[in-house]
Structures are given as structure tokens and as C-alpha cells.
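Hey, resending since the last one bounced:
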Amino acid sequence: MNMRMAAVTTSRAFLFSHHYYSLPLCVPSFFRVPRFHRNPILLSAVKCLQSSSGRQNVVDILEERGLLESLTSEQLRHACSDPSIPPLKVYCGFDPTAESLHLGNLLGLIVLSWFQKCGHQTVALIGGATARVGDPSGKSLERPELDLETLSRNTSGISNTVGKILGSSGVSIFNNYDWWKEVRLLDFLKDVGRFARVGSMMAKESVKKRLESEQGMSYTEFTYQLLQGYDFLYLFRSEGVNVQIGGSDQWGNITAGTELIRKILRADDAAYGLTFRLLLKSDGTKFGKSEDGAIWLSPSMLSPYKFYQYFFSVSDADVVRFLKILTFLDMNDIRQIESDMKRPGYLPNTAQRRLAEEVTRFVHGQDGLDEALKATEAMRPGADTKLDWKTMQAISEDVPSCSFPYHQVLDLSVVDLSVSSGLFDSKSAARRLLKQGGLYLNNSRVDSESKRIEPQDVVDGKLLLLSAGKKNKVLVRISSSS
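The C-alpha cells again:
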């Protein structure tokens, strides 16, 4: 067994230093390895290699945190620990179907970040070409066609988002349109298409489901897996990228790439695929939609405050699992949080607060988290936080609002304004809550029915915040027009 392991190590070192001029190994790259079929002797050897190399095994980390779904080969786990093998180069693709990435894409960024933290190189591939075709994976209907202007705008927006989130760690960003625009159909069919087996393409889960549906599948969508497979081939050959990651619904597209690399470049077990589980709640529903739609990662489409609030509202049944898969907290810290949740005296939402802070910091940076925390505090009636125009602007899309000229608001009673703004249906309802101590102006309790709006109440001369209890609020915009 020692001689066999030595042979494997020698072969892998040769392979990674020469990209695709590799020696064949006994485990074919197209064989999907379930987690419960792993060889305990190989895993033991991997742990020894990990301890001697000093490089954390990213596959083991992903598995421990519940992120790992499948590997195309267990050799990927070995390559993550072998000190004689250079760092891997890993890519994840993002089709620009919208101007921003959303919560469904977050796991891809997190897994890329884990590879970065373990010393590997990362690549984000924007599908400026493949988005024109549309990925059928997980879709019951064909995606609507996007015009070129929209695609360009979306590509730019997603590139900026990826760059801001992962840029500090040196991620490389490519657009597959840069090479697809030069590809001729006849050349592609001759050089690539002849290596694709129609039977294998039709056997992909994403294709089978669509073929069995009433809507069927267009030839355009049917070719998507081959286009994505060629992306992997291109990046492998030109950039030395040897690992592709994606959600579990991307398995067919990923293996299409490893197959092309194996057949065209005669590179057995030289390129790998890794899939992670989709982001689901404990009840099996998708995690990533709110009542208002997608949870966007771009602050221009969803404020850091609202992004923070979304994670703050996660249920107790989901919060520990999300701490494992959506944050980089040490597992011992997460286990401690889980233990604290079961103890008497646990302060509700403490775990959710930690989750919201960690995820918001990862996506929006420390400045975005500070903005979210300040806005959260500002929205709390009775808070000591001094309101300012920037903070109130951050929450302006998340609460009802109305507008009044300055001269109509000045010297108006708070009771009258609370009715005119729509916070209450009647003055009697406003007076009743005021007497109960539940009416607030800019988070300060209104103690008297005689209270009127004064110049110093208008925040930066532009805004007022009225609150009825903790949840019902109205933002009053003040204009200078008469």
C-alpha cells in the first residue's frame, strides 16, 4: 500500500506541473464519488499529508460544515493536502441574468473564499456568452432572452459585486464571451462536438426533467452543457484552472467539462468538479427569496440594512446550520452558540444577530455592516442613536413614506401629522397610543398632545421619523417647495 500511495503522489505531482500531460490513474474523473463510499485507508493517508504540509484541506472543511455534496474524484481531496502538489486553481461560473448576484449565488462565493483561505487560487467566470443561451438546470421553463445592452450592464454589475466581495484576496475575473466571440460553429463541431455523446447529454438530470415536461427543451438550451464544458476546457488549457465548483444542480454541466478535458486533451483525472448543496431551509424550501423578491448582494439593489434584517429574521431551526455554511466562524464557536441556545436565560436572536453580522460583513464589508447596525439601532423606538440623513436614507426603502412642504409641517401637532402621514386612521387612535407611551418622533417618546414640530426636529432639514410602537413607522420627507 505504501508503494501504491507513493506512485499516486508522484503521478499527481507530475500532472499538476504539466497541466494535461498526465500519467493515467486508476480513478476516472467522470465517476461520481458519494461521500459514503470513501476509502478509509486513503482518508487516513490524506490526514497524514495534511498535517505534514501545513495546508488546510478545503474539501474536509467544506464537508465538516455541511457544504460538500459531491466530488468527481476523491483525488481532489488528496490534491488539497499533498505538499508536493502546487495550489489548485478553482473557478465558479455566474451567468449575468440580472444586474446583481443574489443569495442563491452566495454559496459559490463562500466556497471560492474557502479555497482562497486554504491557499488556492480562484477564478470567477462571468457567462457573457452562455447567458445568451440560458442554463436549463433547475428551470422548468426556458429563460427569457436578454438584449445585448442588458447583458453588458448585468455583466458589469456582477463583475463589480464579485470584485468587491473577493477582490481583496486576488480573485481573477473572466468573461467567457471573450473567447466565444471568436469561435466558429463548424470549427466547434469538428474540434469539440464530435467528442460529445448525445446519449450522455440526454442522461443529464437537468435535461431529462425538461424532456419529460410539457414544455420540452429547445436545442439552444440542450447545448448549454457543452458550452459550459468547453469553458472548463478553455480555462484548463489556457489558465491552468483544474477545479470547477457549483451547486448540486450544476453536476451535469461540470462533468461535461471534465469529460471534454479527458477526451480531447487525453488528461485522465487532471480536472475535478466539486458541488455544494443548494441553500434550503429546514422545511426544504429555497432560502433566498423574501416577500419582496430576491435577496440581492449589490447594495444598490438591496440596502445593507435590509440584507442584515433578512438574516436577523432566520428561524432558530435554521440559524446554526446557516452559521456553518454561510460564515467563516470556527466550528467550536458555532458549537458553543448552539449550546447556549439550549440554556436557560438565552437571549433570543443572539445567534441570528451573529449570523447577520458575519454574512453582512462578508458581502458588504465593515462599512456596510456599520451602516446596517446604525440603521437597525435608529429604527428602534427609544434608541439613543442620533438620527442623520444618511442613516434614514438607508431605511427609506424599507418603511412607508410620504412628502410634505416644510411650511405645512412646521408647527403642526405631532398628533395631526401622524394622521396626515397615514400612521394612524384617526386622531383618537393617535392620542390613545400617545397616552400609552407608544408614539415616537425620531425615536423619542412623545409625552404631550401639545407637542408640535419644531425646526430642530427635522433631521438635517429633510426628514422626520414617526413610530407607532416598535413596528409601525412612517418616514416623512420634507421639501422646501411651497
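The two ends are 88 Å apart (CA to CA).

Sorry for the duplicate.
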